[in-house]
Amino acid sequence: MKVIAVLALFVTLFCQGYSNSLDSCQGRCGYGTDSNFSCQCNASCERYRDCCSDYAEICKAGATSCKGRCGEKYNSQNKCHCNSKCTKYNNCCSDYTDLCDSDGGGGGSVITDAEIKAVSETLYALDSNKASASELIIEAQALVPDSQTSSQTDLSSQPLFRYLDEETLFTRPTYVALLAVLDNYQRMTGQAEDFSPEQLAEQEAFVKETMSNTELGRELFAFLYTKGVYASEEEFIQDLKMMWFGLYSRNNNKMDSSGFEHIFAGEVKGGKVSGFHNWIQFYLLEKRGQLNYYSHSFNGPWTTYPDVMGMQFMWGGYFKQVGSAVIGCSPEFDFAIYSLCYITRPGKQCRLSLGGKELIIQTYTWDKSFYGEGKKFIGSAFPATPRN
């Protein structure tokens, strides 16, 4: 009978895809203790000294990779995850798409690159609050090669922004909401952010104004809803609030940063500007004399707004080597494309299409702290060099 039982177990395991052996962690990281196996692959095995020989390689040392882990159960001890839900919670390992889901993910069903490009074109067409050529005029001036972006040399005698029709743009609801939030931050990391009830209300108002009260925002939600990423608009709005405005520590164990502060407002860390990828913040600081534009290292192929530039500048004595931004877009468009890319391609390059021209957004997840059920905050996102 023992022989029959062992053979039956072997056949069962083979059908489940565990044909390697009974003493491997291949595909088993995080599973509870199972007496059918000769060794275990969960956090308790170290204490009971019954880990499989490849536990450290696959489940610990390999905890940042999906190699051998596709489809495993959720294990809070892992730094990243490799199951079908990780795309919804933005906590997949960086190679999840390549190893476990070649078409990418986004919650309930696969979200392909083609679908992301299609919805980004729709968002681009719906950006009715973007600046027109008569409302915004810039002077790009000096163009430098990539090899010279670190030279810290002011090659442009004039400001980048020559004219902005504030009376028209800054009175629109989404611009008003953005302006209210931008001045709520201390730029130096290592200094804890302490928001008043009024400032917290401004954060919520910004998310709702851009995503619930614009056709562009509602289109983004509709796309993610149909793909099974969110079950309701309420869930969508709440998740955006947490992933963008939830605080974490970049320096000195202080709750000093968030995805929104890093990307939209900009920060200073280690003696240099960190993040800072919003054109309106750039305009405001330059107008106040707090920011000095030096040069640009790339300018996108777009002949109307929004356009994309990579700028070199000095912000109050701190240098930014390449501060790329989508120039002239509305706050809701900026917020929407970064959110789209982070939700569908967290920690990866995200390929958009704007007016038939490709734009790559690079996203990064924050891996040192989490919200909800292991969800990851936005670490950073910015326009990479646009393609012609």
Number of domains: 2
The average pLDDT value, as a whole number, equals: 88
Low-confidence stretches: 1-21, 102-107
Number of alpha- plus pi-helical segments: 14
DSSP strand count:
10
Strand residue content? 15-25%
What series of H and E elements makes up the topology?
HHHHHHEEHHHHHHEEHEEEHEEE
Radius of gyration: 24 Å
Strand numbers in spatial order across the main sheet = 5-6-7
Q: Please state the structural category.
A: alpha+beta
Q: Gap between N and C termini, in Å?
A: 69 Å
Helix content: 25-40%
Catalytic activity: ribonucleotidyl-uridine-RNA = a 5'-end dephospho-uridine-RNA + a 3'-end 2',3'-cyclophospho-ribonucleotide-RNA
EC number: 4.6.1.-
Protein name: Uridylate-specific endoribonuclease
Subunit structure: Monomer.
What is the gist of this entry?
The protein has 14 helices and ten strands. The protein has helices at residues 2-15, 45-48, 55-60, 86-89, 96-99, 113-125, 166-169, 173-182, 197-211, 215-226, 233-245, 259-265, 279-287, 331-344, and strands at 136-138, 161-164, 267-269, 272-274, 291-299, 307-315, 318-327, 349-354, 357-371, 375-383. The longest helix is centred in the middle third of the chain and has 15 residues, at 197-211.
Q: What's the SSE blueprint?
A:
Layout: H1 2-15, H2 45-48, H3 55-60, H4 86-89, H5 96-99, H6 113-125, E1 136-138, E2 161-164, H7 166-169, H8 173-182, H9 197-211, H10 215-226, H11 233-245, H12 259-265, E3 267-269, E4 272-274, H13 279-287, E5 291-299, E6 307-315, E7 318-327, H14 331-344, E8 349-354, E9 357-371, E10 375-383
Antiparallel strand pairs: 1-2, 3-4, 5-6, 6-7, 8-9, 9-10
Helix pairs in contact: 6-10, 6-14, 8-9, 9-11
